[in-house]
From TrEMBL, chains A, B:
One of its GO terms (molecular function) is 3'-5' exonuclease activity. Belongs to the SbcD family. CDD domains: MPP_Mre11_N (cd00840). The gene is sbcD. SbcCD cleaves DNA hairpin structures. These structures can inhibit DNA replication and are intermediates in certain DNA recombination reactions. The complex acts as a 3'->5' double strand exonuclease that can open hairpins. It also has a 5' single-strand endonuclease activity. One of its GO terms (biological process) is DNA replication. It comes from the Bacteria. This is Nuclease SbcCD subunit D. Keywords: DNA recombination, DNA replication, Endonuclease, Exonuclease, Hydrolase, Nuclease. Residues 268-355 form the Nuclease SbcCD subunit D C-terminal domain. Residues 3-218 form the Calcineurin-like phosphoesterase domain. Transmembrane segments: none annotated. InterPro entries: Calcineurin-like_PHP, DNA_Repair-Maintenance_Comp, Metallo-depent_PP-like, Mre11_N, SbcD, SbcD_C. It comes from Paraferrimonas haliotis.
Length: 381, 381
C-alpha cells in the first residue's frame, strides 16, 4: 500500500482584507505535517499555488523553509510540489536539482514533467508520480512547436506526452493545476484565462491511478472519484464558509486502485458571514465561543448607525468586512433604459429611491418632493 | 594544503545604464567554475552580494541555479555564500539546511555564524570557515541584547563571538561583508550606513588564517596581506576601468599560513572611458579591436554636434553614457558664498558663465550684456 497525502493551493503569504493570514497558515501547516507523520505517508503532494504570488513576502518564504526543515527531520516522505498559476516557476525551481536528493521535488519545467518521481515504501511497493507545472497554452505551443490554442488542447497535449512515456502496468499518479470543465469555483481563485476558456477535460486523465488536482479551493472530484481536487487547506474568501477544508489521504493498493479519504484540518479561525441587527449581533457575540473568527457582518438595521464597524469590532475582534443591506437595498442591477433619461425629475428620483432602499416613496414623501421641485423650478425662471 | 577560491560581489541581475549585464556575468561565472576545477579547489567562497537586490530578477535566479548545478556536477568543492547588504538573508537562506548536505552552504543568520563549515581535502587536512552574514548594528543589538551602536562595535562583537568558540590550533577562515576602515571604495558600492560611520577595524580579525572580505569592488588587502577583498568579478562602474578583476586563490599550508594569488578573469566587454573629439573618436574606433566595450565617451568638441550619441553608437555599439566637457566645463563645485547673492547681475552672470563653460566672458560679451541689463532696468522704472 502506497500512502499519499494530497494537498494544494496553500497560498502562503496571502492577505485577506489587509490582514495577513500567516499565523493561520502556520497552524494548518503543523496539522498537515502531523497527518503525514501519523499516516506514515510515503509522499506529500502539493498541487500548485504553494505561494500566493510570484514574489512571495520573505515571511512566507521563511514559513515554508521551517516547514521543509521539520518535514525533513520528522518524516521519510517525499515532498512533491508543482508550480501553480500564482507561483513563479523559476523562483520555485531554484536549486531543485540539488533538493531532490533530499526527497524534495519541485516540478516547474517541461523537462521535469517527463521524469517521474518514484514513491516507494518499505515493502518495495512503488507509485510513479508525474507532475504538470502550470503553464499557458502559448508556452506549450512555443516549447513543443505544436498547434494548441487554448487550455483544453494544451493540457491534453501535455497529458499525452506523459502517457507516451509511462508504464501502464505500474501505479501512475498525475499532478496538475488546472480547471476541470464543470467543476465549482469560488471567490478566491484567480481565473486562468481572461476572455478565453480555461476549462480542460477530465477524460484524458482517467487512466491514471490517481489524479491530484490543484487550483479550485473547494474539495471535489470530477468525472471519476480518483480525479480529485483536495481544495485549499483554509478558506480564502467568505464564499467558502461552508467548505469542509482538509487534505486527501490517498491509499493505493496492490491492484493499483486508489482509495481516497478526506483528512479534516481545524482552522485557527473560521471565515463566516453573520447577519442581523446591531443589537442582536452584540448580544449574540457574548455567547459566541468563536467570536474571534474572521467575519463578514451583514447589518440589517434600516436606520443609520454611527461607527458601526468599531462597535462590532469590540465584540468580534476579527471582523473584516461590513455590509449594510438594511440601509442600501441589494437590488439586482438592471440595465438602464434610455427612456429613463427622459423621465421627469420626480419619477427619476422615485426610481433612484426605490433602487437604493428597495422601497417605494410614501405618499407624503412624494408630496414633499413635488413641492420642493416646484420651488426649484420657480427659482430657475 | 587547503585550496580556496575567494570571490565576492557578484551582483547577479545588475543593470548598468539600463543595460542588463547577465550575458557578461555568465561569461565570468564560467571562468570561475573553470578555475575551481583546474585548481582542484576544496571550497569556493562568495563573500556577500551574490545578487544585486533582495528580490533578484527571475533570470538572475535561473543563472545562479545553472551555476550551482554545473558546480555540483563538475567539482567536489564546497560552495560557501554569506549574505551581503544587497541580498535578502531570508530569501537567500531558503532550504539552506537541506542544501548543506550537498556541500552548498548559505550563511544568512547569527545561528549559522557560529557553526563552522569544515573544508577538507583528500589528505585529511582541514580548514574551518566561519561566515558573518551582513547585518545592521541594530540587528546585533537586538539579537544579543548588547550595547553596540555602530558598525565597528557590532562587527567586533560578532568577531569576538566567533573567536570565543574556535580552536586556535586549527586553520580558521573568516568571511565577512563589511567596509574595513581606510580601504578604497569606488562608484558601484552602496554605502552601508547613511549619516553614520560604516567602517570596521581590521585588527580584531588578524588572528584568523585568512579573512575573505566582500563589499568593496576593488581587490585590495587591509592591515595585513591575509585580510583581503577579492573585489567584484567585473567592473560595475566606469570608476573601475583600471581595476584588475579576478578572484583570489588562497592556499593554506600545513603550518596554517595562507598564500594568496590573484586569478584574473577576462571580461566579455571592458568598461572604459574614452575621451576626444568626435572626428578623432570615429577614426580611432575603426582600429579599435574592443570597440564593443561598455564605454563612457567624453566629447571634447567645443561646438554643438547633432545626434552625437547615435553617431558614436554606429562605431561603439555599447556606448552607455556621453559627457560633453567641451560644451559644458567640468569645473569642480565650489561652495557658494553668501556674498555672491549680493553681487550685481553682471558679475553674477559672468560667474555663472565661467562656472558653466570654464571661460571668462570676452570684452565684447561683457559690453553687450551691460547694454542689455541697462535696457531691462529702464523698463523696470
Amino acid at each position: 500500500m502506497i500512502t499519499i497525502v494530497h494537498s494544494s493551493d496553500w497560498h502562503l503569504g496571502r492577505s485577506f482584507h489587509n490582514v495577513s493570514l500567516l499565523d493561520d497558515q502556520a497552524i494548518w501547516l503543523e496539522q498537515i505535517l502531523q497527518q503525514v507523520i501519523e499516516q506514515q505517508a510515503d509522499a506529500l503532494i502539493i498541487a500548485g499555488d504553494l505561494y500566493d504570488r510570484s514574489v512571495p513576502p520573505a515571511a512566507a518564504v521563511a514559513l515554508f523553509d521551517q516547514f521543509i526543515e521539520r518535514f525533513r527531520c520528522q518524516s521519510q516522505a517525499k515532498l512533491i510540489v508543482i508550480s501553480g498559476n500564482h507561483d513563479s516557476a523559476t523562483r520555485l525551481g531554484f536549486a531543485a536539482n540539488q533538493l531532490k536528493h533530499k526527497g524534495i521535488h519541485f516540478i516547474t519545467s517541461f523537462d521535469d514533467m517527463l521524469e517521474p518521481i518514484i514513491v516507494s515504501n518499505a515493502s518495495g511497493e512503488q507509485a510513479f508520480v508525474y507532475g504538470i507545472p502550470y503553464c499557458e497554452p502559448l508556452q506549450v505551443r512555443h516549447h513543443y512547436q505544436c498547434h494548441v490554442s487554448h487550455h483544453a488542447q494544451a493540457h491534453q497535449f501535455l497529458v499525452e506526452q506523459i502517457k507516451a512515456t509511462l508504464d501502464e502496468s505500474q501505479s501512475n499518479v498525475l499532478v496538475s493545476h488546472c480547471f476541470v470543465d464543470g467543476a465549482s469555483g469560488c471567490d478566491s481563485e484567480r481565473p486562468l484565462s481572461i476572455g478565453g476558456s480555461d476549462a480542460v477535460a477530465w477524460e484524458p486523465m482517467q487512466n491514471f491511478t490517481y489524479v491530484a488536482l490543484g487550483h479550485l479551493h473547494g474539495a471535489q472530484y470530477r468525472g471519476a472519484k480518483h480525479i480529485r481536487y483536495s481544495g485549499s487547506p483554509m478558506a480564502y474568501s467568505f464564499s467558502e464558509q461552508h467548505h469542509k477544508k482538509g487534505c486527501c489521504l490517498v491509499l493505493i493498493d496492490n491492484e493499483g486502485l486508489a482509495n481516497v479519504e478526506q483528512l479534516p484540518l481545524q482552522p485557527k479561525r473560521r471565515m463566516r458571514v453573520v447577519e442581523g441587527r446591531m443589537a442582536e449581533l452584540i448580544e449574540q457575540a457574548k455567547e459566541d465561543p468563536n467570536a474571534d473568527d474572521y467575519l463578514m457582518v451583514r447589518l440589517t438595521d434600516t436606520h443609520a448607525i454611527m461607527d458601526a464597524m468599531n462597535k462590532l469590532r469590540s465584540v468580534y475582534p476579527n471582523i473584516l468586512h461590513l455590509e449594510k443591506p438594511g440601509m442600501l437595498g441589494q437590488i439586482p442591477n438592471r440595465p438602464q433604459a434610455n427612456d429613463q433619461i427622459k423621465q421627469s425629475e420626480l419619477s427619476m428620483f422615485a426610481d433612484f429611491y426605490q433602487q437604493s432602499l428597495g422601497r417605494e416613496l410614501t405618499h407624503e414623501q412624494r408630496s414633499l418632493l413635488t413641492e420642493l421641485l416646484t420651488d426649484l423650478h420657480k427659482q430657475d425662471v
